[in-house]
Amino acid sequence: MTVPKSSARAFALALLVAGTSLVQPLAAGAAPRQERLETRSAPLLSVGGLKFKDLDRDGALDRYEDWRREPAQRAEDLLSQMTLQEKAGTMVHGTAPTPWGGPPAYDLTVAREVIAQRGVTSLLTRLSGPADVLAQQSNALQEIAEGARLGVPLTISTDPRNHFQHVAGASVPAGAFSQWPEPLGFGAARDAALTRRFADTARQEYRAVGITTALSPQADLATEPRWSRINGTFGEDAAVVERMTREYVRGFQHGKGVDPQGVQAVVKHWGGYGAAQDGFDSHNPYGKYATFSSDAAFEDHLDAFRGAFGAEVAGVMPTYSIVRGATVDGEPLEQVAAGYNRQVLTDLLRGDYGYRGVVISDWGITEDCVGACLNGAPAGQQPSFTGFGAPWGVERLSRDARFVKGVQAGIDQFGGTEDPSPIVRAVQAGRLTTARVDASVRRILVQKFEQGLFEDPYVDPAAAARTVGRASFQKAATAAQQRASVLLANAAVPTGKGKKKKQLLPLAGGTKVYLHGIAAQAARDAGLTVVATPAEADVAIARTATPFETLHPQYVFGRMQHEGNLAFAPGQPDFDAIAAISAQVPTVVSVYADRPPVLTRLLPEADALLLNFGITDEALLGLVRGEAEPRGKLPFELPSSMAAVEDQLPDVPADSAAPLFRLGAGLRY
Predict the structure, then answer these.
(1) Which residue in the list 56, 132, 362, 617 is annotated as catalytic?
(2) Is residue 275 within 8 Å of 225, Cβ to Cβ?
(3) Taking the model in full, what pTM does it have?
(4) Which of 96, 196, 414, 654 fits 663 for a cystine, CB–CB 3.0-4.6 Å?
């Protein structure tokens, strides 16, 4: 619609009243440019020819409603108007209520009670589905928040959702979003610009559906090969991790610091998570320790976060783990999880590293872990998230006392709870001061203002459908899958009777291939001829994954996470199949490496060996055909045996005896 200049102001007002967003340009030297606004229930105020949202509905322009003011000024005014309940609600970061088994939708009745009554203004979404539906659901939550007493908008967060592996409670299936390699793949690519491009793409997809906070990246050093969270890291090279983390944060946040077009990044898991004792993860009671051999190694794990700090990351999430073997200023660390450890959060993070953003705990640290959570589900029963908690080191404290200890240690916001009442009771009883609570709430509010959420927290479902997973995004993601792949072997094989040998990869068009674990149609689309038996083939192409064990199936995370053995060996179905195939025909093997595989037995069975960090059949076959080239370098060393894995230190990178492949290894065609 074309609007005559004479009626532009009237048209603008009509759009704003109807809830439509508008940016009103003004000539140089005139009044401030009209900020983009969208409202569903809050009235609009007109002051000096400009429009403002009357979020508290008092008919006057409050400082916090005045988008011309600095975020710190606005936050201070809003803070002065908040009740203790509302402040406490700001200090918890809950999970948006999503009924099981139904369509992708929130339980808005429960959400209304959590947001409007308890004052909770930060929620994690685990919702997956079409982009337009996700956008509509975000808008529904924001509408509830706008209707609350002060109209404070929601911060909607998510675990990573643009990759391949997903574990409930730690990541989300990619679904409609563009699908990139695991963060390990960016560590393998060692390309800062590629990491930033990924993060900027994910930023656009997140914002399109109303997600404004990324509970990522992991700056943890992957120094314990058996650890189940390695796939979410950038590897064990501290310099690479620091550089990739910095660009990841800059890409998500749309530059340095918090930005109106950006997504707040939360770097995790501060305090030595990667040094997991025996490789067991501290989501679980049997894996609650991280063990260090020296203060120098502990410092190396902390220094990997410097890239995120240099990018002014919005949030830091401490580890669940209790850190053993390290000291701060000569004093041993208190044997409590990092979320309760003042030495880790205040002395180190705030003090030595100078961090000034928000500290948010991991999910459920204030909850009890008893019964099935502590001892595993009884025989014959499936473990569940019911009763999950991770209060490591403070198990004997009451729930209220855990909140107090966490705040005193340095926590600003508690993840995984929608109940702020322990904070209210602590202030009323004098166990926490109002000034200390205000300090945390102030940090959280400033970031909401910096993101522009008070003016326009809503998104366009149609635009979300056009943005999320768009073809150009997925094309770049597929190229990244290929770029990150590591070529470890490419033997010379005979090209035919009486002909010279040549390297097996890349394959020529029309090559007759036998497939294991790869879709036949994808091979045909790549110009290869698919045959039914190895005897008919010129080459076999096989896919497999790093071995693992399920050592603790009675625990909810133990059932989902990959633990234990990393070594290929006879008796494993994939290994036996590949060995039988390779005895008949030259064989290309691609291994998905979510942890460092022990390839000593597999390597002789592979004439060409590729490691991937999440790759589609189509992208893999593009590599095999030479349409793209694997250019990755190992983000971790590959041990030669499980004995070497067990003998190495959990906190020191690349220290196994006689590794099969060293950190940084990788060939080219």
Answers:
(1) 362
(2) no
(3) 0.94
(4) 654
